[in-house]
Amino acid sequence: MSKLPDHLDIHLIRILYLLLCEKNVSRVALKLNQPQPSISASLRKLRELTGDPLLVRGARGMVPTQHGESLLKPAKRILDETERLFVHKTAFVPQDASRTFHIAAPDYMNTPFFLELVSRMRRESPKSRIVIHALGPETDYVRLLSDGELDLVIANWDEPPQHLHLSKLFDDPIVCLMRADSAYAKRTASDAMTVEDYLSLPHVAPWQVLPGYHGIIEAYLDRQNMRRNVVVESAYFGMLPYMAAQTDLVLTTGRQFALFYEKTLALKSFTLPIKFPPMRFYQLWHERVHQATEHKWLREQVGLVAKAMVK
């Protein structure tokens, strides 16, 4: 690279390519609408740069030297690649696009949301691929977004990084979920759950979602100087409803998540005596894709699914 001239004009490479193709200075001058002396001067410069005559006299005019012949394909490749650099980006057409979208979310994101999102994207962009990534304490999602390895993060943490773009999706009220035939579930409606009841019941809870952060339930209780009786913690949120269905454990979660498992397992959700703030779900993305048409389309699909979820 150090042997390259400080100012290598792409036009000079175009002249090199045309000279090797046309093998005639006058024809190249006509093609480029330049005077013949100018093309002859460029040929002299090219000979100086390459240390080779490039074109020599043959029986029927000029012919490329062996070295000149070897430069034909590299010159064309450079011109083709340069042209691609400045081609206007074509519009994103979902039905025709073959794009791979990378979306990350914690596994407590309710199942119906992603079922509907995948279904919608399969309808709207059937040639595209969708990769759903897990989010855990070890996931550096900020770096993955900035490096382009993730397109979008869907989450509900208290304080997302301020330098990322954020769009709110929906609020999900917090309820508790327990076995439908548990002792508490059989209590009469007039015997409402008290704060003491809730805190003393045996709870199952997710392990750290992010380093040092156990989620909005624990964060809120800490602010209120309250502590619940967590007897089981699991890094696998999808296991928690099944644990609650088979034991006396109580699971505190969003209503959308709870409703899904009420339909599939012998579980029942209850209103809580503590006024937890709702789970506020949002989507996050990096500035590098903020204006990209396909990313705008992706965020729109996520937003439409979220809007349908809360109707």
Overall tally of domains: 3
Assess the beta-strand content as a share of residues. 15-25%
Please give the number of β-strands. Answer: 12
Helix content range of the residues, please? 25-40%
In whole angstroms, how far apart are the ends?
A: 62 Å
What's the main sheet like? 5 strands, mixed
* Unreliable sequence segments: none
Architecture (CATH level 2) name of the largest domain: 3-Layer(aba) Sandwich
Helix/strand-derived class?
Answer: alpha/beta
Oligomer: single chain
CATH superfamily of the largest domain: Periplasmic binding protein-like II
The average pLDDT value, as a whole number, equals: 88
Radius of gyration: 32 Å
Order of helices and strands: HHHEEHHEHEHEEEHEHEHEHEEH
What overall geometry do the principal axes of the alpha carbons give?
rod-shaped
CATH topology of the largest domain: D-Maltodextrin-Binding Protein, domain 2
Output the strand order for the largest sheet. 4-3-5-12-6
- SS summary, helix count: 12
CATH class of the largest domain: Alpha Beta
GO molecular function, one term: DNA binding
Protein name: LysR family transcriptional regulator
Domain HTH lysR-type: 8-65
Keywords: DNA-binding, Transcription, Transcription regulation
